[in-house]
Amino acid sequence: MMKLLTLNTHSLQEENARQKLEWFVEGILKEKPDIVALQEVSQTASAPLAEDHLREGQYRIAAQISLRQDNYAAQVAFRLRQAGIDCHWVWLPIKRGYETYDEGIAILSLGRKITKAEMYPVSKSEDYDNWRTRAVLGVQVEGYSDWFYSIHLGWWEDAEDPFLEQWKTLGDRLETQRRQSTVWLMGDFNAPDIFLDQSYTRIRADGWMDTHQAAEQKGKDFTVFGIIDGWRDKLPDQNVSGMRLDYIWCSQEKEIRSSRILFDGENEPVVSDHFGVLIETKEE
């Protein structure tokens, strides 16, 4: 059995961000997922440099951006270690957010060391100051041959850097991994399943299993309520009650015991403008 969790954290941009980080850690301690994929993982670019205790468990990758004290991934990992969880983690800075933050993606592994990590751009732009810049982060962990990726892709109809081109770039880079092992794509795909013949349809057509739809036990579908930033000018119906933007995809057909929405205000507090998705497999 394996548990996987993904969340677009919105991290430091959230009101009451520190309290929401604590709630998020409490949720992880309750559910104890094996792998956690995070998107919109920020730090304040002008914050003091991170102390050594915040770097414990970090798998370091080539990056030109220094780790800062308020880095969301580092703070979550630190709190998990304080609670007795052997947490290993990696953070990839991708772009400047709102002229204030270093924003990126991260992966946390609870109880297993990260043995390998890879990163690469999928957008046309690799400019750190371009908000459209996108990249992906993947890891292998001790005891698994599987690859786990944290993903945050753009919109289908983006005139400058559309989803389809990013998805093709990602697909080309994943060919080797898909032949050699199981691949899990976790994150915010900006791919509502209510739009036919767009992002969601293309991912399915390319042979990826939607683990939520495949699960024996399914919770709610929506991973965001209403219309969030980035979607206000993209929906013909401005009265939608919610959308499914966040997914866990698998390169192979797997038996999925359950798929649940977390941090939606019911069993756990809301910690972001997105909700988390947690799946549990039947076998490792």
Give a description of the structure.
The chain has 284 residues and is of the alpha+beta class. It has one domain: Deoxyribonuclease I, Chain A. Helices cover 19% and strands 32% of the residues. It is built from six helices and 15 strands. The strands form three sheets. Strands 3-4-2-1-15-14-10 form a seven-stranded mixed beta sheet. Helix 1 crosses helix 2. The radius of gyration is 17 Å and the shape is globular. The N and C termini lie close together (5 Å). The relative contact order is 0.17.
**Helical residues, percent:** 10-25%
Largest sheet: 7 strands, mixed
Oligomer: single chain
Give Rg in angstroms. Answer: 17 Å
CATH architecture: 4-Layer Sandwich
Count of β-strands: 15
- What structural class should be given to the helix and strand makeup? alpha+beta
Order of helices and strands: EHEHEEEEEHHEHEHEEEEEE
CATH class: Alpha Beta
Which fold name fills CATH's third level, the topology? Answer: Deoxyribonuclease I, Chain A
Query: How many structural domains in the coordinates?
Result: 1
In percent terms, what proportion of residues is strand?
Answer: 25-35%
What would CATH call the homologous superfamily? Endonuclease/exonuclease/phosphatase
Low-confidence stretches: none
Overall average residue pLDDT: 93
Distance between the termini: 5 Å
Total count of helical runs of at least 4 residues: 6
- Main-sheet strand order equals 3-4-2-1-15-14-10
